[in-house]
């Protein structure tokens, strides 16, 4: 019987080794281990054996069964793996074909810049204020130390709706409105982005509508050196740490002293080139110490409070930062233009 | 203001500093120098030549053959200028000279005859044609007789000058004069200043016997001075004066006119010369014009005047518009021998009104408008008399006939060293302040750290402490201010809820594939009434127009964002960019007043416009065009994100496709609309098929609440049931859905439409819509019979309401 068993084992193992498909393997399993299989048949004959022989043959039989089972499992695993490999190979795709892109839009470049500047000043404790685009003559001019007939009104050609109502020419009225709202009672730290309008003919450098960002800081003991410090922080964050700023005296009716701020030219680093017209500097914004008349008209005591204000053109910042050369691009909304900056 | 450096050097020593360096210093101290112009690039080897003979060229009719003495040599030169003649002194470019434009002069042969140089016009020497005296425009420039043969033309014609172009702010009217510029430059360079003395020798005759002066409106004209100069000889001005005028951008005319212009530039004081004989009166009366009175001005235009305008009259009729322009009838011309010279102070408001009404703006009016120095009015008149005596042979009569109620006092400003340092953040010493005031040539009294400053009248802009603060700071140097940060208590900055929400909405829209745009708020007549949302239109808004639009394209304040937004779509489509998905967030401007008396309501809207293909890379996908449901889905997603219950209701609106349009309603109130544009509008606007939406964001913000409360995640299983109804074509899927939701509440948690079929397999006039219902109870597992009962009730209700039956 022992020989019989060993023969079955070697025969089965040979067959297992020889097959290469799952179905045959299954048939082999049935042929040896199945209810009518040869090993089962042999084992069935165990009853006829003597008491002494039975455990010995039983042990051999178990070993044979184990060997066949192991071989079947091993082979099965190999075959399954081969089958899977084959299937995966068949499933291969051309990964160079384009993906199904999710359509993504984006912000307008001016919005990106405004939000960047908003966040920068929010980080310095400023709040963001808004104001009406249709303004009264009072808030747009008079409250800013520009009484009727003031020669500096010529600096800004105004779209009037009536004698008293106009399209705001700057975001500065929001200064006056905010201070008036606070009623001289507390410090002000605000910036105000918004649309403004001038009576200009649209061309590469002029637009009858554009965007300004205004800033106002009023408190006790505010110094002009604080303005310089804040503007320097702003310029470096906005344009790069290597940039230098320069303040020049200027004139705005609502600030005294008034300044223009230049930053060192990025292209030439200050040596002078065609971008900065040889000066090494590029004009960025206007600023100054809030004029005592403006503080007083808004209910702030100029003996107690002082402050600074600044205002910049968003389009100008965008043009300098991204090299846009025609201001009309911001309003024609050419998709090819918008897409260039949708992650700005 | 154009500032000739050669002219400036007469008053202040600028040393060896280059024009560029000087411009930089001036800019940093407060006057922006916009540009530097060199009159001519180096014109070497150009000398004065004497034309000894001038004959016709043997082989050319229009050319002349000249023998020219250039001092150290005699040159044969061929010249084509029509005004060349024997005996003239002219500018000769010798061989080897290089003229502006890198034009090299060489020996040449012209029609067989040798020419050894060129006789030059001013234009060829680099002078801009508009400044060239009229008689020298079409030919060569002829020097006066007194120049030396062989002399250096560069110096004689001021060609080596550099001109700084000042971009003056309105407060710095003082720099509208060479004297003012001299004070500024002297302060910056810390140099002394040398101004001319107004020394006039007067004749025995008294000007008072020639003219009297009467001023009716002394508020507008507090000083009027009249000088009489007799026996004048009208001729060209001296060369140096012509040169300076040309450098300053003024064309020389004759000595009398040039001298008034020269003094205007030198002192910043406008002057006017009347031909005394043509005045036909011995009287000057300054008054307001009478309504409808007329005057023909120097430019030969007849001006109709009103009481707003100040005029100079001869007692009978106007002879000049005060401070703006003289009259043609009393103009100085070649026959003039006696002049009445006016030096007056007109207040800026009087002149501004005349300028505004007549559109006449001149060097004179600009200075009056910005304010002149009361202490230099008469001095300027005397200076002009001096020059008329010197260069026009005039006899200046004794006495100035004047009306004088002019305030010439200096403004007193108190400053204090501590206060200055407190405001600037500096540590400027008392000595430094003294030094700064001295550089500025301001008079002051000092008592320790307190100063009483007497601001000179040329600096009318200085009236208060802060003005002096700026003066001190700018001379001290803005570069020398330290960098500090404010010391006050810090506070947290943040966006308001509304500002944050605006950003969130933009981010959502951009995430769905829309591109943000910004369009103009001002639109045209054709667009103003278009695509106004029904809830805006319902209240009959009045269009708001600009009083003086720049163009018809931008005349009205928009009542809808859509027309301008659609304009941008058209712009792109015309450039073959057809796949567009745009949105804009911005205000419209609403009023109900016919005549605006108060600010309109600025109401924030969200508008979108989509056109073309949505899926752009269709190699394995169906190419998807933008359609109504895509557009609607974007809005549904937005309202879902904001958690506000907006409903879409079928509607017919002007300019919209009648079958593809809906209003948006929130709590039974219309807050906008969505749909496809009407094909006629698309055609008129040259647009491809376009879908739009417009939402009232004020209403959206009002309905929004950011207070989310926690609700239990359901523990019990949900059960899905599907059902398909056969419905009449006209029945709306949404209505049926609403009925299912209503009937199934509260067990039915969610109803989705998953199939809509209309066609061959549906009966005529019918369609099939399949709904998927989700049942769920918060506290228990639903039993089959509970669901069955609800399901049957739904079928019955839908059947009775819409005549629908269940598709088997």
UniProtKB/TrEMBL annotation, chain A:
Keywords per UniProt: Aminoacyl-tRNA synthetase, ATP-binding, Cytoplasm, Ligase, Magnesium, Metal-binding, Nucleotide-binding, Protein biosynthesis
Family: Belongs to the class-II aminoacyl-tRNA synthetase family. Phe-tRNA synthetase alpha subunit type 1 subfamily.
Record bears the keyword Nucleotide-binding: yes
Segments forming domain Aminoacyl-transfer RNA synthetases class-II family profile: 109-340
GO cellular component terms listed in the entry, alphabetical order: cytoplasm
Lineage: Bacteria, Bacillati, Bacillota, Bacilli, Bacillales
Source species of the chain: Virgibacillus profundi
UniProt-listed Pfam families: Phe_tRNA-synt_N, tRNA-synt_2d
Requisite cofactors: Mg(2+)
Protein name: Phenylalanine--tRNA ligase alpha subunit
Cofactor: how bound: Binds 2 magnesium ions per tetramer.
Its EC number(s): 6.1.1.20
Binding annotation for Mg(2+): 256
InterPro entries the record matches: aa-tRNA-synth_II (IPR006195), aa-tRNA-synth_II/BPL/LPL (IPR045864), Phe-tRNA-synth_IIc_asu (IPR004529), Phe-tRNA_ligase_II_N (IPR004188), Phe_tRNA_ligase_alpha1_bac (IPR022911), Phenylalanyl-tRNA_Synthase (IPR002319), tRNA-bd_arm (IPR010978)
UniProt keyword ATP-binding present: yes
GO molecular function, one term: catalytic activity, acting on a protein
From TrEMBL, chain B:
Enzyme class per UniProt: ligase
CDD domains the UniProt entry points to: PheRS_beta_core, tRNA_bind_bactPheRS
Entry's localization field: Cytoplasm
Keyword vocabulary terms for this entry: Aminoacyl-tRNA synthetase, ATP-binding, Cytoplasm, Ligase, Magnesium, Metal-binding, Nucleotide-binding, Protein biosynthesis, RNA-binding, tRNA-binding
Cofactor requirements of the protein: Mg(2+)
InterPro entries found in the cross-reference section: aa-tRNA-synth_II/BPL/LPL, B3/B4_tRNA-bd, DNA-bd_dom_put_sf, Fdx_antiC-bd, Fdx_antiC-bd_sf, NA-bd_OB-fold, Phe-tRNA-ligase_IIc_bsu, Phe-tRNA-ligase_IIc_bsu_bact
Keyword Protein biosynthesis among record annotations: yes
UniProt keyword Disulfide bond, yes or no: no
Biological process (GO), any one: phenylalanyl-tRNA aminoacylation
Entry coiled-coil feature ranges: none
One term under GO cellular component: phenylalanine-tRNA ligase complex
Free-text cofactor note: Binds 2 magnesium ions per tetramer.
Catalytic activity: tRNA(Phe) + L-phenylalanine + ATP = L-phenylalanyl-tRNA(Phe) + AMP + diphosphate + H(+)
Annotated EC: 6.1.1.20
Domain FDX-ACB stretches: 714-807
Domain TRNA-binding per the UniProt entry, residue ranges: 40-154
Lineage top rank: taxon: Bacteria
Molecular function per GO: ATP binding; catalytic activity, acting on a protein; magnesium ion binding; phenylalanine-tRNA ligase activity; transferase activity; tRNA binding
Similarity comment: Belongs to the phenylalanyl-tRNA synthetase beta subunit family. Type 1 subfamily.
Protein name: Phenylalanine--tRNA ligase beta subunit
Source organism per UniProt: Virgibacillus profundi
Name of the coding gene: pheT
């Amino acid at each position: 019987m022992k020989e019989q068993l060993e023969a079955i084992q070697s025969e089965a193992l040979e067959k297992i080794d020889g097959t290469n498909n799952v179905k045959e393997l299954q048939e082999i399993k049935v042929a040896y281990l199945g209810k009518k299989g040869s090993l089962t048949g042999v084992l069935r004959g165990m009853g006829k054996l003597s008491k002494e022989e039975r455990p010995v043959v039983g042990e051999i039989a178990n070993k044979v069964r184990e060997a066949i089972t192991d071989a079947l499992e091993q082979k099965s695993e190999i075959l399954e793996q081969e089958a899977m490999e084959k299937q995966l190979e068949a499933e291969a795709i051309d990964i160079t074909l384009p993906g199904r892109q999710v359509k993504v839009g984006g912000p307008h470049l001016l919005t990106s810049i405004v939000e960047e500047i908003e966040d920068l000043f929010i980080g310095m404790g400023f709040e963001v204020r808004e104001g009406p685009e249709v303004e009264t003559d009072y808030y747009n001019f008079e409250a800013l130390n520009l009484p009727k007939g003031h020669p500096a009104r010529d600096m800004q050609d105004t779209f009037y709706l009536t004698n008293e109502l106009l399209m705001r020419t700057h975001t500065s009225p929001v200064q006056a409105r905010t201070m008036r709202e606070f009623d001289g009672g507390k410090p002000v730290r605000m910036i105000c982005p918004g649309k403004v309008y001038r009576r200009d003919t649209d061309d590469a450098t002029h637009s009858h509508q554009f965007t300004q960002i205004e800033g106002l800081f009023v408190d006790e003991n505010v110094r002009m050196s604080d303005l310089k410090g804040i503007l320097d922080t702003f310029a470096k964050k906005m344009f790069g740490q290597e940039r230098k700023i320069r303040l020049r005296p200027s004139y705005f009716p609502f600030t005294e002293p008034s300044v223009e701020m230049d930053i060192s030219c990025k292209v030439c680093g200050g040596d002078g080139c065609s971008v900065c017209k040889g000066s090494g500097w590029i004009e960025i914004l206007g600023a100054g110490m809030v004029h005592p008349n403006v503080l007083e008209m808004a209910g702030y005591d100029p003996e107690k409070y002082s402050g600074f204000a600044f205002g910049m053109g968003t389009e100008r910042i965008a043009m300098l930062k991204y090299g846009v050369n025609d201001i009309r691009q911001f309003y024609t909304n050419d998709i090819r233009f918008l897409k260039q900056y949708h992650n700005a | 203001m154009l500032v000739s450096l050669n002219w400036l050097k007469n008053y202040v020593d600028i040393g060896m500093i280059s024009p560029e360096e000087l411009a930089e210093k001036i800019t940093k101290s407060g006057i922006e120098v916009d540009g530097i112009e060199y009159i001519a690039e180096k014109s070497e080897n150009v000398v004065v030549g004497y034309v000894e003979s001038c004959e016709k060229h043997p082989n050319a009719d229009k050319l002349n053959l000249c023998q020219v003495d250039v001092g150290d040599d005699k040159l044969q030169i061929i010249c084509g200028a029509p005004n060349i003649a024997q005996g003239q002194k002219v500018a000769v470019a010798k061989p080897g000279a290089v003229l502006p434009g890198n034009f090299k002069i060489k020996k040449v042969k012209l029609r067989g005859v040798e020419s050894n140089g060129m006789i030059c016009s001013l234009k060829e020497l680099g002078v801009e044609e508009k400044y060239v005296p009229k008689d020298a425009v079409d030919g060569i420039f002829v020097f006066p007789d007194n120049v030396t043969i062989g002399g250096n033309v560069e110096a004689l014609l001021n060609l080596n000058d550099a001109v700084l172009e000042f971009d003056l702010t309105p407060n710095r009217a003082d720099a509208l004069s060479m004297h003012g510029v001299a004070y500024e430059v002297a302060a910056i360079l810390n140099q002394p200043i040398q101004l001319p003395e107004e020394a006039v020798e007067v004749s025995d005759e008294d000007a008072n016997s020639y003219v009297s002066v009467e001023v009716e409106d002394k508020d507008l004209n507090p000083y009027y001075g009249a000088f009489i100069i007799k026996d004048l000889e009208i001729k060209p001005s001296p060369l140096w004066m012509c040169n300076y005028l040309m450098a300053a951008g003024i064309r020389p005319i004759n000595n009398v006119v040039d001298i008034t212009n020269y003094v205007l530039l030198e002192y910043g004081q406008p002057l006017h010369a009347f031909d005394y004989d043509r005045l036909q009166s011995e009287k000057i009366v300054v008054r307001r014009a009478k309504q409808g009175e007329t005057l023909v001005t120097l430019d030969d235009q007849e001006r109709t005047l009103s009481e707003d305008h100040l005029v100079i009259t001869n007692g009978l009729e106007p002879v000049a518009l005060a401070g703006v322009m003289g009259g043609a009838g009393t103009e100085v011309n070649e026959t003039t021998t006696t002049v009445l010279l006016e030096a007056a102070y007109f207040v800026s408001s009087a002149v501004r009104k005349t300028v505004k009404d007549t559109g006449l703006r001149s060097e004179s009016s600009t200075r009056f408008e910005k304010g002149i120095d009361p202490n230099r009015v008469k001095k300027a008149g005397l200076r002009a008399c001096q020059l008329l005596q010197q260069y026009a042979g005039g006899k200046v009569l004794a006495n100035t006939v004047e009306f004088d109620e002019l305030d010439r006092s200096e403004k007193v400003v108190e400053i204090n060293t501590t206060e200055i340092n407190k405001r600037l953040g500096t540590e400027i010493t008392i000595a430094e302040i003294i030094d700064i005031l001295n550089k500025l040539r301001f008079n002051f009294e000092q008592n320790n750290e307190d100063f009483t400053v007497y601001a000179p009248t040329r600096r009318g802009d200085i009236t208060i402490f802060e003005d002096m603060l700026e003066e001190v700071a700018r001379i001290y140097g803005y570069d020398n201010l330290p960098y500090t940060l404010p010391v006050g208590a810090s506070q947290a900055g943040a966006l308001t809820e509304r500002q944050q929400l605006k950003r969130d909405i933009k981010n959502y829209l951009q995430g769905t594939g829309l591109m943000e745009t910004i369009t103009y708020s001002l639109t045209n007549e054709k667009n103003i009434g278009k695509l106004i949302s029904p809830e805006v239109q319902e209240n009959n808004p009045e269009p708001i127009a600009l009083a003086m639009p720049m163009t018809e394209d931008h005349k009205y304040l928009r009542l809808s964002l859509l027309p301008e937004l659609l304009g941008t779509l058209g712009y792109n489509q015309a450039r073959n960019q057809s796949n567009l998905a745009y949105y804009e967030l911005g205000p419209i401007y609403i009023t109900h007043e016919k005549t605006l008396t108060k600010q309109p309501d600025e109401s924030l809207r969200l508008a979108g416009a989509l056109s073309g293909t949505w899926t752009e890379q269709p190699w394995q996908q169906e190419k998807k065009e933008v359609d109504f449901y895509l557009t609607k889905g974007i809005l549904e997603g937005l309202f879902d994100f904001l958690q506000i219950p907006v409903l879409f209701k079928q509607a017919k609106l002007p300019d919209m496709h009648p079958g593809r349009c809906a209003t948006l309603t929130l709590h039974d109130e219309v807050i906008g609309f969505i749909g496809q544009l009407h094909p006629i509008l698309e055609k008129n606007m040259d647009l491809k098929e376009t879908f739009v939406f417009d939402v009232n964001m004020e209403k959206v913000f009002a309905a929004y609440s950011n207070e989310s409360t926690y609700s239990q995640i359901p523990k019990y299983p949900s059960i899905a049931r599907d059902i398909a109804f056969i419905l009449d074509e006209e029945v709306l899927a949404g209505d049926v859905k609403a009925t299912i939701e209503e009937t199934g509440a509260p067990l039915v948690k969610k109803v989705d439409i998953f199939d809509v079929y209309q066609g061959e397999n549906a009966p005529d006039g019918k369609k099939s819509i399949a709904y998927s219902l989700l049942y769920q109870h918060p506290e228990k597992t639903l039993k089959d019979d509970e669901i069955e009962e609800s399901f049957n009730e739904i079928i019955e209700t839908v059947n009775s309401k819409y005549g629908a039956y269940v598709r088997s």
